[in-house]
Structures are given as structure tokens and as C-alpha cells.
Write a structure and sequence with these properties.
This protein is α+β, with helices and mostly antiparallel strands. It has a domain of about 200 residues: Cytochrome Bc1 Complex, Chain A, domain 1 (2-Layer Sandwich), CATH 3.30.830.10. A six-stranded mixed sheet has the order 1-2-6-3-5-4, covered by helices on one side.
Length: about 325
């Protein structure tokens, strides 16, 4: 057996490392303050467009918990040139996908489409950055949607509040870091149209956003589209960054949380009859058994099945048929 060869690096030679992929990134800033990043990658004929706004859970004012998440929903309710719920239809009709999400420090929206739909994605994002449809009807509708989302995804799930709701009050002391980012139901219901318009004017200014385009596209052509659709959005004052500092804690803090989750309950019952007597392990999985028995009694009796010939008889008849001479037409 040949012993393995051990290759040792030479003295003074650079240690081998994994190659780091490098993509060219171009940065542009429009006159209204919008920051633009281009990262072309011709690997696949797709393009991704995203807009990140510098506002999240931690920027919400006191008394308006959950407002950042609520406003994310409002941004899909139409804009000046796009009807209610038409944004998703345009993206999906072009063969793309979309979504939005709210985080502690930012809210993002994105579209992933074939490269030929780049202009469409930029138009949709620019239109709702300029003039989303903030109406009383849309606000009330989305408050109900957000409340139902919290019930389904958080409150009605076993330990669904961990860590987003349960952990921050234990780990932090200040309101920006410790409050419930999903939002208190009472405060969500108290949100007014003036609150929504003020939130948009303050945090959804072009200078408070970053537009990113990556994928199979030409940067020069993309810049033309960006200037065409985003360039005329009026500039607004950008809010100063808030203070998210926490006091130094000298003692450990613990909290025990007991959830209302209970193990699922199931019941089984053996039905009378010859079948269950032959196979005691065949039990129905759900109750009530009485209803099943009544359903069987109501069904008409089936006609007895016609007896079939044994397989050997059928083979013999087929052989006799094949031995017969063919008749002339």
C-alpha cells in the first residue's frame, strides 16, 4: 500500500484561501437624496429590484406600536397610477414574485422578475414611493388584516410570541428596543389617517431609502429608467437617527413564560362487526362511530358479484380460440 503524500506549504508562501466572488457595484445618488446601487450579474436572465427604507420597529413613536408593520401593508394598497391590489397582479403577470417585510431597523420591498421586466418593477416602486393611496378605507382594512395576521401567526401558535414579543421586554429597558413590534391591538385600532400620512412624510422620503438593482441588466439603461421614474419625486427632510442606547445592566434578569398551549386530544373507539373482530387493530381514527354506522345502514345493498372463472380456465379457453383457423372474408 502506497502511503499518502502530504503536501506542506513552503515557508513564506501565502496560505491558500477560498476565492471570494466579486461583483461590480455602482453607486449613484439622485438629486432628491435617493441612494441607488447597481450590481449587474449576467449569470441568469433575471433581475431583482428592492427598496429599503430606514424605518423599522425601533423607529415607531410611543402609543403607535406596530405602525411600521401596518404601513408595510398599506404600501400594497395601490398608488397614483396603480389600482388597489394591482401591484401583485402586474408582477405575477410578468412572471415574477414580490414581497415586503418589516425589521427592527428597516422595511424592505422587492420584486424578482425576468430581466425584460426591469422597467416595470422600477415604475411600480417609484409610483408608491411618490404617492401611495393612504385612505381611511385602506387604513381600516389593513388594521383588520394585521390583527388577523397576529392572531394566526403569533397568538394562536404554541409559543408563537417567542422571541419577538416575549424576549425584548426581558432583554431591554428602553421603549424602542423593548416594545412589541407587532403592535398592541388597542393602539393599532386607534391609528388615524393623520398618523399614517405623517409616518409616510417622515420616513418614506427618497433620501431615507436605498434602491438596489441586481441581475441581468445594463447599468446605463437602468440608470435611465431610475432617473425617469424616481428623479422627479420631491425631496423631503430626512429624520435624524434616533437613540437606541440601553443602560448598562449590572444584574441578571430572568423571566418564566407559561403558554396556553395544550397537547392535542384524540379519541378512538372500536366498532362492532365481523371486520373489527377479525382485525382488532383496525380502529376508526375519528368519532362519532354512530354516524358512520347509520350511513352504512342507509346505503342500498349491493348486488352479489358475478362469479369469475379461475385463471386456468380462462387461459385454456384463450388457447382453444387461438387454434381455430381463420375464416376467409
Amino acid at each position: 500500500m502506497v502511503p499518502p503524500t502530504v503536501v506542506r506549504p513552503r515557508q513564506g508562501a501565502a496560505s491558500p484561501s477560498l476565492p471570494v466572488p466579486s461583483y461590480p457595484i455602482e453607486r449613484v445618488r439622485l438629486g432628491n437624496g435617493l441612494r441607488v446601487l447597481f450590481a449587474p450579474d449576467r449569470t441568469a436572465p433575471v433581475v431583482a429590484v428592492s427598496v429599503h427604507y430606514d424605518v423599522g420597529f425601533r423607529s415607531e413613536p410611543q402609543g403607535r406600536t406596530g405602525f411600521a408593520h401596518l404601513f408595510e401593508h398599506l404600501m400594497f394598497q395601490g398608488s397614483a397610477n396603480v389600482g388597489k391590489a394591482e401591484h401583485p397582479k402586474h408582477v405575477q403577470a410578468a412572471g415574477g414574485i414580490f414581497n415586503g417585510s418589516t425589521h427592527p431597523d428597516h422595511t424592505d420591498y422587492y420584486e424578482l422578475l425576468p430581466s425584460g421586466a426591469l422597467e416595470l418593477a422600477l415604475f411600480l416602486e417609484a409610483d408608491r414611493m411618490r404617492s401611495p393611496k393612504i385612505t381611511q378605507q385602506n387604513l381600516e382594512n389593513q388594521i383588520a388584516v394585521v390583527q388577523e395576521e397576529i392572531r394566526v401567526n403569533v397568538l394562536n401558535r404554541p409559543y408563537g410570541g417567542f422571541p419577538w414579543i416575549s424576549l425584548p421586554p426581558v432583554a431591554f429597558d428602553t421603549f424602542p428596543n423593548a416594545h412589541n413590534g407587532y403592535g398592541d391591538f388597542t393602539e393599532l385600532a386607534a391609528a388615524s389617517l393623520d398618523d399614517a400620512e405623517d409616518f409616510f412624510d417622515k420616513f418614506y422620503a427618497p433620501g431615507n431609502a436605498v434602491l438596489t438593482v441586481t441581475g441581468d441588466f445594463d447599468p446605463a439603461e437602468a440608470l435611465t429608467f431610475v432617473e425617469r421614474y424616481f428623479g422627479d419625486i420631491p425631496a423631503r427632510a430626512v429624520p435624524a437617527p434616533g437613540s437606541f442606547a440601553e443602560p448598562v445592566r449590572s444584574q441578571e434578569r430572568r423571566e418564566r413564560i407559561t403558554d396556553r398551549a395544550r397537547p392535542p386530544r384524540r379519541a378512538r373507539r372500536r366498532l362492532p362487526g365481523a371486520r373489527s373482530d377479525r382485525r382488532p387493530d383496525r380502529f376508526p381514527r375519528l368519532l362519532p362511530a354512530r354516524r358512520r354506522a347509520q350511513r352504512r345502514r342507509r346505503q342500498p345493498a349491493r348486488a352479489p358479484a358475478r362469479p369469475t372463472r379461475p385463471f386456468g380456465d380462462r387461459c385454456a379457453r384463450l388457447a382453444r380460440y387461438l387454434r381455430k383457423p381463420l375464416r376467409a372474408a
